[in-house]
Amino acid sequence: MTFPVQVGPSIVTINRDDRVVVCQPDGRIVGTAEDGFFTRDTRFISGWAMSVNGRPPVLLNSAPIRFFSARFELTNERIVDTMGPIERQSIAIRLDRTVAGGVHEDLDIVNYARRRVGLTIEIEIASDFADIFDVKANEIVRRGQLNTRWFRSRRELRTTYVNGEFMRELIIAVERAGSQPQYANGRLVFDIQLAPKDVWHACLKWLPVTGTHLARRPVTMGCNAVDVPPAASDGRLPAMRIDTPNETVRRAWDQAVRDLESLRLEDPRFERGVVIPAAGVPWFVTLFGRDTLTVSMQAISGYPEFASGALRRLGALQANDDDPERDMEPGKIPHEIRHGELAQLGILPFTPYYGTHDATTLYVIVLSYLFDWLGDPAVVERYLPNVEAAMRWIDTYGDRDGDGFQEYATRSSRGYYNQGWKDAGDAIPHTDGALAPLPIALCEHQGYVYDAKLRLARLYDYLGRSADSRRLHQQALELYDRFNETFWWPEEGTYILGLDGAKQPIRSVASNAGHLLQSGIVPPERSAQLVARLMRDDMWSGWGVRTLSSDRVAHSPFSYHTGSVWPHDNAVIAGGFRRYGHQAEAATVAKGMFDAVERLAMHRLPELFAGLPRSAPSFPVQYLGANVPQAWAASAVLRLVAVLAGIHATTDRSGSRLYVDPALPGWLPALAIHDLRAGRGSVSLEIRDGAVSVLRNTSGFEVVHGGAPRVAGRADTPAATLPSAPAPAGR
Predict the structure, then answer these.
(1) Which pTM was predicted?
(2) Which of 149, 144, 145, 173 shows the shortest CA–CA distance to 159?
C-alpha cells in the first residue's frame, strides 16, 4: 500500500530561470514566508487577491500545467448585482499564469447564468520588495521608499522601490481587456456586463525591472500560453529517459528530469547559453558553488551542460584577492552569490560569499568528470588555469596550519560557522553534543582532496606533464597514509567525523564517512566494516542513512543535519558501496530511496526528510521547510540508477569508453536507458538478465560491458595507468 504524502505546505509553485511564483491553491498570494513572486532575490509581489462583486471566488481545482505554468479553475459565491442575486457557481473564472521574463496572467470569465449579469472584478496587488533572506526569516524590514502610480493611458500600474543605489520596479501592464481598467482603493477594477454564455478576457503582465536595467522591460509569453504545446526542441539533445518494469523507478526518474529541466538557470547578464542548475525552489534559485558542482557530478550522464556551466560561471568568480569579511582567498571557489537588497548594500557578504571549503576541491573533480564524459581535451586546456589556482588554494589556505589536513574556520563576522555540505550551525557535534570548536577538519574533505589530486595527476599525464603528475600522485599517497592513521576509529568500525580546533577527534558516527568510499581513500580491507556500520539500525532509518547516529546526544530526526535523511547523501553513499563491491548494500540504499519516493506526492524526492525509523505501514515524514524541487534530490535519482547500472566513462590517450557493469536487484529486473549523453552525441542501451545491448551509439565512445579497472584504496599504480575512478553522477 502506498500513500501520496504531501511534502511542504499546500501551495502552487511555478518557476523559470530565477523567477518564481509561490501562491495558494486558489491563486492568492498572502504574504507568508512562502508566498510571492520572486526574482533576483527580491519579492516583487507580496500580495495578490481577487474579488467578484466584493466576494472572493471559490476554488474548484488548480494545478501546475508545466513547471513554468499553472491553471486555477474558480467560480462565484452567491453574489448580487443591480438585477438581483447571481446564484452560486453561475460564473466560470479561469486564471492562468505563465512564467517567462515576467509573469503573464490570463483571466477568462464566462457567464453561465440565464440572464445578463453585472460583475465588478477587483484585483489587489501588493509589493514589499523584501529581500529573500528577510522573507525566509519572516521578518520583513522596509529600508527604502515605495511609490505606486497608475498610468491610465498606458494601462500600467508602476510600483518603485529605492534604497540608495538599490532600485527595483514592478510594472503591472493590462492588455486586451474586455473593459476599461480603473485603479481605485489600491485595486485594479474591471466593470463587466456579460450576456448568457458571453466570455470576458484580460491579460495582466507582471514585469519585474532591476536597478541596473530600469529601462528594459522583461518579455513575457503571449495570451493563453498555458494552452500552447511545448516546443519540440530548443536545439538541445533529447532529455535522457528510461524504460523499466518498475513503475516507481520510472516515475521517479521522469519527475527528476522534469525538476532538473525546471531548475535550469541562465543569466544573460553573464553569458547566454551558459546553464547551471539552480540549487532549489524557492530559497536557493541562484548560483551555489557546492550545490552546482554536486549536481553536475550526479547528473553528468544526462546534463553535461551543467558541468560546463558550473566550470564557466564559478571559474569567472574564482577569488583572486583576500577579503576576510567574505571568507575570500586567492583561488577559492565561491559558496553563493546574491542580488538582493541585503547583498547589494553590504548588509550580507554574498557578492559573492566564499564560505565553503569543499567547492574548491569539487571544482577540480568536476573538470575530470567533464573531460571523461566529453572526451574533449579542449575543456581541460580551457579550465586548467582555474583548476591549478584551486589546487594552490587547497595546498595553502585549505590547510590552515600546515599539518597536511584540510580545515575550515570563518574569518567573517557574518560568515558560516560550518563550511562543509552540512553547514548548519549545529551540524558538527562532539559525542557529548557540544559544538566542535573551529577550525574543523572534516573527514570527507580529506577524501575529496585525495580524489582531486589523483584526478589532476591523470589530467597532467594526458597533457604530457609527467613530473607534475608524479608530484600530485605522491601527495595523494601521503595524504592516504596520514588520513587512515589519524581518522580511523577501530572501536566503531568507521572514521571519526573530523578533528576539532584543538586537534581532538570528533567522535560522532555520521554519514560523512560514507563519502570516503566514493573518494576511494578507504583501504579495501576496511570497507566491509564501514559499510556494516553505516547500515546499523542507529544509522539506517529504513528509508535511508541518517546524517547522524540516533544513539548520539545531538541527534534529532527533525534536524537539518543531525539525524535527518538526505537523498543526495544516500546517492553518494550507494555509489561508494558499489565502488568497493558491496552491491547488495548499494541496492538496499537505492531501494529505501525509491520506497520513499513511491509514497511521496508526484514521485518527487524533497531536499531532505525526517530520520524517523520506518515501520510498516508507514511513510517518510517531511522536514518542514525543505526545498521542493531541489536539484541535489532530483539528480540523486539519476545517480542511483547509474550506480545500479554500473555506468561510468573514461577518457585517456587510448580513447574514450563507456563502461556498463550492471548489478540490477530483483526489484529492478530490466532497464533501458535512452539518450545517455557522452562525447559528440548520445548512447541508448538495454540491460536485461545481466546482458547489455547497445541500441544506438552516436557518441564516438566505445561501449564496454563490464567495469573498468578501478582504484579503491591506496593508489600505488602510477598515474599514467590510473583509470578514471567511478564518480557520483552517472559514472
Answers:
(1) 0.93
(2) 149
